[in-house]
Specification:
With 341 residues, the chain is of the alpha+beta class. The chain folds into 3 domains: 88 residues; 66 residues; 150 residues, Heat Shock Protein 90 (2-Layer Sandwich), CATH 3.30.565.10. It has 6 helices and 7 strands. A hairpin with a 3-residue loop joins β6 and β7. The radius of gyration is 37 Å and the shape is elongated.
Length: 341
């Protein structure tokens, strides 16, 4: 690049001298042209030197700035290559003072964090499914043996096998959804939904079971639409599991309240009951998979409902809190911010 620019400058200077010589020789004659051309020559020389100095300074500045970018980028490349050889995805580090490079490093680190989470969820998914499938598979095996040796009622055995198969399918689906939510995998694009409609649907879905248990199920919501960009299936699962838990652990004659309101820029979903409550030392564990506050109870389940709810809230970058008093009831509060999703 530099030889080409220098050659262009010399060519333009030569053309200027030639044109100047022809023009002045016609107007000044042979006597005065020598003095004028001498002055003209030095003007061209100093112009050329000035342009050369400016070019040199520009090249030096360009080289300095390029090294400021290339050195930290080379370090990052070396770190990335080292991690590739080791099969790691540890956070990258940088000592650069350049904002754009630091932003690039932050973006890579967020990507690595997401990749690590997805890998952890994949490992957990396998472990959790194997853990949960032992019981239904053992039931199937027992009934198969009883059918084989003729000691089982075929209809009863078929019913147990069918229930166990349904349980396995449900476990697969629930664990897969939790893993997908925790790893922030987005299969479908979110759409704007009115949470009042989803709440109404879920309350109607559980109204029969609440009536059978003599539990009073009530709802409250804003008059204006409560719009949230989300996925219908996820939000229905959120409401369904909270309402189902509240009804399960509320004795006959009690009540369950479900509400959806705008509070400033936040949407608050609240499910309260007058049930048995949760001890304070147990509350930090309730969102863990397989945790059951009352594992010997008739409505114990698999301990996945609240874990699924927590994963959905995490997926939407919201928060969920639990306030409970044993013997008086429990309140779950979910806070979602529409513009964060």
């Amino acid at each position: 690049m530099v030889p080409a620019m220098s050659g262009a400058m010399l060519l333009s200077a030569g053309v200027s001298v030639a044109l100047g010589w022809i023009t002045l020789s016609d107007k000044l004659g042979a006597g005065g042209i020598g003095t004028v051309m001498a002055e003209y020559f030095w003007i061209v020389v100093w112009t050329f030197l000035s342009m050369a100095s400016l070019l040199s300074a520009s090249l030096a500045l360009f080289f300095f700035l390029s090294r400021g970018f290339s050195v930290p980028l080379a370090k990052l490349s070396g770190q990335a290559d080292e991690q590739t050889r080791k099969g790691e995805t540890s956070p990258l580090a940088t000592d650069s003072d350049i904002r754009e490079i630091n932003q690039l490093v932050d973006s890579f680190n967020r990507l690595f964090d997401l990749q690590n989470r997805q890998q952890d969820e994949l490992r957990n998914l396998t472990r959790y499914i194997l853990h949960d499938m032992r019981t239904p598979i053992s039931h199937i095996a027992i009934q198969a043996e009883r059918i084989f040796d003729g000691t089982a009622n075929p209809k009863t055995a078929a019913g147990v096998i069918a229930d166990s198969c349904n349980t396995i399918v449900q476990l697969f689906e629930t664990h897969s959804e939790i893993a997908s939510n925790n790893s922030m995998v987005e299969i479908e694009k979110p759409v704007e939904l009115d949470l009042r409609d989803i709440m109404e649907f879920c309350v109607e879905l559980y109204s029969a079971s609440a009536s059978m248990k003599n539990v009073y199920l009530v709802r409250e919501c804003d008059r204006a639409p409560v719009i949230f960009p989300g996925h219908k299936s996820k939000l229905q699962s959120l409401f369904n599991n909270l309402i189902d838990n509240a009804i399960k652990y509320t004795p006959p004659g009690g009540s369950v309240s479900v509400s959806v309101f705008h509070v400033g820029d936040t949407i608050q979903i609240k499910v309260s009951d007058t049930g048995i409550g949760i001890p304070s030392e147990t509350i930090p564990k309730i969102f863990n998979r397989f945790f059951r506050a009352n594992p010997s109870g008739p409505e114990s389940g698999f301990g996945l409902g609240l874990s699924l709810v927590h994963s959905i809230v995490t997926y939407y970058r919201g928060t969920i809190t639990c306030n409970s008093t044993p013997g008086k009831g429990t309140t779950f509060m979910v806070a979602l911010t529409p513009n964060v999703c």
